[in-house]
Specification:
Radius of gyration: 22 Å
Number of strands: 2
Number of helices: 18
Structural class: mainly alpha
Bound molecules: phenylalanine
Mean pLDDT: 85
Low-confidence stretches: 369-377
């Protein structure tokens, strides 16, 4: 079957599309929570170093593999070396799992849009927003319904094809998200009592430079940049050979990191003001438990809230579509499956896993299936933390490690560097540094972190 491969209309379009994939729930929902859980300043510092020294070079390698082969992630490896086809499959498995919990959180975002638009009441008391959120996710039916709605929306759009329209919408919305986040961050950082939160973000405790922080920062950096899962191989395969991959990668990394920092500024000081430091231990619900409080303190806060969650929805949607699209492209190109069948089939599988994630938000939940007469019901597995750790701490670093070894040693850093240089007007001045990182530094660092994750029980515990 002859494949018609599309190309990005412009390099700006490509950068924004890749940034659209990178900027998502990871920046706003996950990043501030991870800063909170891993010691603030130390995590932020390690995060920046990892993005610059490892994330950026690995992103470049992925884009080069994609552009060099013009194939989906599995086809790309097969084209370069048949024995390495498994590398692309690691990406597919990772994306499948990510998508299933991405939809749950995407569903929460949809619910909050409705709450703001209808002006529903959050209840009273000092912990009203927190109680509201916890009540909502502990219910079984409603979050599940929102989760499915989000997934169905993604499937629908992917079946239609990611049209010029969606690209244009996300191009218009990403700058809005950026501006709005700046506004919320300024408001949050100037709340009375916000100082404590800012201090937490900027204080670097030597004791926080530990294995857990490195594991968390590496997994988060790759997740947030959409690196280590083959998304950028797919996106790179649509880039014309005239484009400068180094510049594009730098822009994607900068935009993604800026949004994550803005989100941290928007959320962490507000957590300190509303919930105190112990609020930081509450996992990933910051955006849902804390921002409503900030919005309520603003004139016209309801509008702020509605707009914020709508933009968060678009950020999540553009990322989710890129995930589903990459999996669909694989089934389409490798198995000749029709786009409709591929999207619906994948969606059905994802919805089952997704339901498990949604239901396990309440750790004590027991499922009583009427047709099995268990008197006490089946205890729900704590899938929520397991799935995130499986992807962030294990599969994504593993994918990145395999991509580095492949690029540095199998395809060869010379071939990869030639591909990168192809679109540059000047020489690839960072070539020797990049080669060193891809062949030695990145695989070494990822390998050490994986070793601790797997054999020392860090991260996955
Ligand atoms: N990078 C996205 C985020 O930060 C998530 C994502 C993961 C997108 C994998 C595509 C692929 O939310």
């Amino acid at each position: 079957m002859k494949q018609k491969r599309s190309q990005w209309a412009s390099n700006l379009g490509f950068i924004l599309a890749a940034a659209g994939s990178a900027v998502g729930l990871g920046n706003i929902w996950k990043f501030p929570g991870k800063v909170g859980a891993n010691g603030g300043g130390a995590f932020i510092l390690i995060y920046i170093i990892i993005v610059a020294v490892i994330g950026f070079p690995v992103m470049l390698a992925e884009l080069a593999i994609g552009r060099g082969t013009q194939k989906n992630m599995v086809g790309a490896f097969r084209t370069l070396d048949k024995r390495w086809t498994f590398a692309g499959k690691i990406g597919i498995v990772t994306l499948f799992v990510i998508m299933s919990y991405y939809c749950v959180v995407g569903g929460w975002v949809l619910k909050y849009i409705l709450v703001y638009i209808t002006g529903a009441h959050f209840g009273g008391g000092t912990t009203q927003y927190q109680d509201y959120f916890v009540n909502f996710i502990s219910d079984w039916a409603e979050p599940l319904a929102w989760d499915l709605l989000f997934l169905i929306l993604c499937i629908y759009i992917v079946i239609k094809g990611v049209s010029q329209g969606i690209e244009r919408v996300s191009k218009a919305l990403m700058p809005c998200l950026f501006l709005l986040l700046i506004g919320i961050a300024i408001r949050s950082a100037t709340l009375p009592g916000a100082k404590e939160g800012l201090k937490f973000m900027f204080t670097i405790e030597p004791a926080d430079f530990n294995r857990d922080t490195f594991v968390a920062a590496l997994g988060q950096a790759f997740f947030s940049l959409s690196v280590g899962m083959g998304i950028l191989i797919t996106y790179g395969s649509y880039v014309p050979r005239t484009e400068n991959l180094v510049k594009s990668s730098a822009w994607i990394c900068i935009l993604d990191t800026l949004v994550a920092f803005l989100a941290a500024f928007a959320i962490i000081p507000a957590v300190f003001v509303t919930l105190g430091q112990e609020g930081l231990g509450m996992g990933g619900g910051f955006a849902f438990m804390v921002l409503p409080r900030v919005f309520a303190s603003l004139p016209g806060g309801v509008v702020f809230g509605a707009v914020f969650f709508i933009l968060l929805f678009f950020a999540a949607l553009t990322s989710a579509i890129s995930i589903l699209e990459s999996c669909v492209a694989y089934l389409e190109e490798e198995f000749g499956l029709h786009r409709f069948k591929a999207a619906v089939g994948l969606g059905a599988g994802m919805s089952i896993l997704s339901a498990g994630y949604s239901l396990s938000q309440d750790p004590g939940r027991k499922i009583n299936l009427p047709w099995f007469h268990f008197s006490s019901g089946i205890q729900m597995l704590p899938m929520n933390s397991v799935m995130e750790k499986f992807t962030d701490d294990l599969m994504i670093p593993l994918g990145a490690l395999v991509f580095c070894i492949f690029t540095g040693w199998i395809w060869g850093s010379k071939n990869a560097a030639a591909e990168i240089e192809a679109g540059m007007e000047t020489r690839f001045t960072l070539k020797s540094v990049w080669t060193f990182v891809i062949r030695f530094l990145a695989p070494g660092a990822i390998g050490v972190i994986l070793y601790f994750t797997l054999w020392k029980g860090q991260g996955l515990s």
